[in-house]
Amino acid sequence: MSLRQVIWSSHSKNELTRTLRFWSNKNQSESYNKRLIRSIDRYLGFIQKYPAASRQVQPGINRIQILRFQLYYRYTDTTIEVLDFKDARSQQDLPHP
């Protein structure tokens, strides 16, 4: 079984970049960013193998909790598409497929 390819939407890439920039400025250090990136990589590795193991929040959209953040994605037999990345305390709407 080959791993699904991970594809980040432009929106999710922008949100991750914004998040990393915020924490870098706030902490004046990259240590939290490194921890967050390692956690994201670990969870993405898991959902590449077991994409249905996380909570489905809308038909076709799953969510996984990573530290204090939520990563929303959808999947096919060959891909994991990251739709959104946001602070778990956010009251924003869910992503639309």
Structure description:
By secondary structure, this protein is an alpha+beta fold. The chain has a single domain, classed as YaeB-like fold (2-Layer Sandwich). The chain has 2 helices and 5 strands; from the N terminus they run βααββββ. Strands 1-5-4-3-2 form a 5-stranded mixed beta sheet.
What are the defining features of this structure?
single chain, 97 residues, alpha+beta, YaeB-like fold, five-stranded mixed beta sheet, 38% helix
Helical segment count: 2
Q: What is the average of the pLDDT values?
A: 91
Distance between the termini: 26 Å
Low-confidence stretches: none
Listing every helix as H and every strand as E from the N terminus to the C terminus, the arrangement reads EHHEEEE
The amount of helix comes to 25-40%
At the first level of CATH, the class is Alpha Beta
Reported by name, the CATH topology is YaeB-like fold
The CATH architecture is 2-Layer Sandwich
The tally of structural domains comes to 1
Sketch the major β-sheet.
Answer: 5 strands, mixed
- Overall strand count: 5
